[in-house]
Design the sequence.
């Protein structure tokens, strides 16, 4: 972390309210993902978390940002075209987007 120029701040023990962003992510992954999928081991749990993280950062809209995505895809969003459904984790996570015309 230091090599990347990130300054870490140590929080007091048992103070979950001090890191609202982390708490929100943990709450989201619990309610949207882990309540629907049973991990079958450590490797499977890592796969589930990495798939959810990709969904969270690239495909899931965020109400705090006016229902925009965290990372915008390259190019302009399509206004016309067929709507396609993409799935992750066997359909537990879904993402709808327009296909290129």
Sequence:
């Amino acid at each position: 972390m230091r090599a990347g120029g990130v300054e870490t701040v140590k929080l007091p023990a048992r103070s979950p309210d001090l890191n609202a962003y982390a708490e929100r992510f943990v709450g989201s992954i619990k309610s949207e993902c882990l309540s629907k999928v049973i991990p079958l081991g450590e490797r499977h749990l890592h796969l589930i978390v990495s798939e959810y993280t990709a969904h969270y950062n690239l495909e899931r809209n965020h109400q705090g940002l006016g229902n925009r995505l965290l990372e915008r895809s390259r190019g302009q969003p399509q206004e016309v075209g067929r709507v396609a459904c993409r799935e992750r984790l066997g359909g537990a996570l879904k993402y709808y987007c327009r296909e290129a015309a």
